[in-house]
Structure formats: C-alpha cells, structure tokens
C-alpha cells in the first residue's frame, strides 16, 4: 500500500545523537503504522512468542544480504527519505516481518561487523587486516552438520576474502564457504592481457572505506582460481563477464549479477551477499550516498523476485536483509554526519532487519531489541543445524 507518508507521520523524525535505540525503534514503528497500518508484534502476540501456526517451519535455503555502511532514517524511513527506498516500503516490508531495533554492540568497522554477523559473536580483530574470524562461521556450522558443500559468499569489498572460513581449530577450511569477490575477478581478468584497460573500471575496483584502506593482493594461484570460477562455475567467458561489467555502473550491480548467475547454475543453499555502494558516503558525496541507497533498495527487490521466479528457490527460501550498522547523526560533534560512523552513538549502532519467506509472518513489525549476532543461531534454527559457539539468541518471531 502506498500513500504520502509525510502528511500522516505522527512524530518527529529529526533523530539526533542523543536519541536512544528504543526511541529510534518507536519512530520506525509509528512510521509503518502511519504508512500502511502494519501491525506491531505486541498487539498480535507477545514479544518472544511464536505466532500461531508457524512453529516447526524450516527453510531449505537461506540468503542473507547485508549493507556495508547503513543508511540513516533521515534518508530512508523518515518522510523526507522514503523516496529513496520505494521497493522496500511498497513491496518487501509488507511481505515480511520487520524488526525496528537491531542494536550493534560491537566494533563499527565493515569487515569486522560483517564477520560478527556471520559468526554470531562480536569479533574484535583489526578491521583493516586480512584476518579470518576467530569464531566458527554460519557456513562452517551448516556444512559440518549437513555434509553439503553449497555455502557461498559474494563480497564486493576488497578486504573480505577471508570471511568464509574461521581460524577456529574445530572448524576451518574443511567446512568454510567459497568466497567470490567480483572486484578481484574483474581485476584478474583485466590483468590477464585483455584489450580493455582497468582504468575503464576504476569506479568498480576501488573501495570507499575509511582510511587506512586495506587493499588485498592476489597471488597468481588465487587469480587463476577466480578465473576458473568465472569460466566453469558461473558459466561465463571472460569476454562475457567484461561485457556485463561494462554495462553495470556499480560494484553492487556486478555482485548481484554474479549472485544471480550462481543461483541459476548451482542453487546454493546458504548464501551471503554484502552490498557496499552506500559506503561511498565516506567520500562526502551526499548524492552518491543517496544513489547507493536507491540502488540497494532496487537490488534487494531484484534478489527477492529472483527467488520467487526460480523453482529451486521459490517457496523454500528465507531472505534476511540488514545493515551492518548505521551512520552518525548530523548534530553529533564527534562525527561527520552521514559520512562516517565514528561516534558509536545510537544512530550509528541502531539498525533494522527484514525477514521474508515461508513461515515468516507478513506485514508485521517487531520493536523489541535484538542484535546482529542473533542472526546466526536463528539461521541454524530455521535450517535445522546447531550453532553451539554463538553468543546470540534465536529470534523467536521467525521460528
């Protein structure tokens, strides 16, 4: 249901650094009530209780999408920002359960925060070092339990190549996910004597991280492996890949293109996709930051529609979408507004989660606080495997 939100939104959306996570959650909940009458969980079933009829549902496949660098409410859910997320508002949120208060209590760096989401433990390594997570990842739990080898990560950022396999002695390489880095594949292709220049793809190959920027360097073996993935797994020749890359205007577009190719050709059961175009905000370009939000909105809808149209995924796949964390408030003297996430204030730490799929209650908001580390045990419960070393809690509304 679509309507002009600004005329009916009952509370101020001028969130400041002094606002609490619960206040941010309240604003989001009231926004959705004003927008389309979505129900709050407390009025339908008590927080922490399972909705009737949904107990025992299990996903056969799960796709987790994270945003590298969250978008503030002023550019998304508030009246002045709703034009940037029309697909989330009109198509996706009405089909799922929306959690208004996801509080990140860990380090606000993109790689370490995404690794924390993937392990269910707040990781504490240096965000700018190519370190494997200390704790087992959800991929290792899944593969050790299922015996299957169909866990994958698509990560456009250069520093994410070790997120699929932890350093934990009880798990590790025998159970990790295969990580595809589209930027690295493109760089490998361009570095193998192709006629086109890497300069033509500079906007795709660069990261927009905080400095110091970590740039991973591939060995020849890793480069050859990337090209093997391109040719034999994704069913694309180098020429086809370059042709597609030339028509795509962002690293996230390229990542979603590869994700869909992977879904078509291998149909993995567990897939993590990280999107990072929003993080161009670090460069201080507000218009590009908005472009990144709008693109993420469109790409999330594209992924959901791809799930629905693919017989390998339709009716058996849960989609989880959440930012890794937020951004600083405009009025916070210790930050730079939309550009960064340095202060650790409520706006930088309080994000949201959207869940869609079989057994997930539609058109529902939940405003009790949860944490990003709750995602892994919840995935385990949905897919039927144990996650013994996580420190999060299962999100009962999704089970």
Q: What does the model show?
A:
By secondary structure, the protein is of the alpha/beta class. It has a single domain, classed as Alkaline Phosphatase, subunit A (3-Layer(aba) Sandwich), CATH 3.40.720.10. It is built from 13 helices and 9 strands. The chain has helices spanning 21-36, 41-44, 86-92, 110-119, 138-146, 182-190, 202-205, 220-233, 238-247, 251-265, 286-309, 346-349, 375-383; strands at 39-40, 61-67, 97-103, 151-154, 178-180, 270-275, 317-323, 350-356, 364-366. It has a 9-stranded mixed sheet. Helix 3 runs parallel beside helix 11 (286-309) and helix 6 packs across helix 8 (220-233).
Give a brief rundown of this model:
With 399 residues, the protein is of the alpha/beta class. The protein has helices at 21-36, 41-44, 86-92, 110-119, 138-146, 182-190, 202-205, 220-233, 238-247, 251-265, 286-309, 346-349, 375-383, and strands spanning 39-40, 61-67, 97-103, 151-154, 178-180, 270-275, 317-323, 350-356, 364-366. It has one domain: Alkaline Phosphatase, subunit A, CATH 3.40.720.10.
């Amino acid at each position: 249901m679509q309507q002009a939100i600004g005329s009916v939104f009952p509370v101020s959306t001028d969130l400041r650094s002094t606002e609490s996570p619960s206040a941010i959650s309240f604003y989001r909940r009231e926004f959705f009530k004003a927008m389309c009458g979505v129900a709050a969980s407390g009025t339908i079933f008590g927080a922490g209780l399972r909705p009737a009829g949904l107990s025992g549902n299990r996903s056969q496949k799960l796709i987790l999408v994270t945003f590298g660098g969250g978008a503030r409410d002023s550019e998304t859910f508030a009246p002045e920002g709703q034009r940037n997320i029309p697909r989330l508002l009109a198509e996706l949120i009405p089909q799922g359960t929306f959690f208004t208060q996801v509080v990140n209590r860990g380090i606000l760096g993109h790689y370490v925060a995404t690794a924390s989401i993937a392990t269910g433990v707040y990781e504490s390594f240096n965000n700018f070092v190519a370190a494997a997570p200390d704790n087992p990842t959800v991929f290792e739990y899944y593969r050790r339990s299922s015996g299957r080898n169909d866990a994958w990560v698509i990560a456009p950022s250069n520093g994410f190549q070790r997120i699929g396999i932890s350093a934990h002695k009880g798990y590790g390489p025998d159970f990790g996910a295969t990580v595809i880095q589209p930027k690295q594949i493109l760089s490998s292709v361009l570095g193998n004597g192709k006629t086109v220049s890497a300069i033509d793809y500079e906007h795709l190959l660069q990261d927009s991280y905080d400095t110091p920027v970590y740039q991973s360097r591939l060995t020849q073996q890793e480069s050859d492996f990337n090209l093997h993935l391109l040719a034999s797994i994704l069913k694309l020749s180098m020429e086809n890949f370059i042709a597609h890359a030339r028509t795509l205007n962002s690293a996230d577009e390229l990542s979603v293109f590869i994700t869909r190719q992977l879904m078509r050709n291998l149909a993995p059961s567990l897939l993590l996709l990280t999107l990072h175009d929003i993080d161009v905000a670090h460069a201080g370009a507000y218009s590009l930051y908005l472009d990144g939000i709008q693109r993420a909105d469109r790409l999330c809808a594209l992924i959901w529609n791809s799930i629905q149209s693919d017989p390998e995924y339709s009716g058996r796949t849960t989609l989880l979408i959440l930012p890794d964390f937020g951004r600083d408030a405009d009025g916070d003297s210790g930050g730079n507004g939309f550009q960064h996430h340095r202060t650790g204030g409520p706006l930088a730490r309080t994000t949201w989660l959207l869940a869609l799929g079989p057994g997930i209650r539609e058109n529902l908001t939940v405003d009790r606080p949860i944490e990003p580390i709750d995602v892994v045990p919840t995935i385990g419960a949905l897919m039927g495997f144990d996650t013994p070393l996580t420190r999060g809690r299962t999100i009962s509304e999704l089970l």
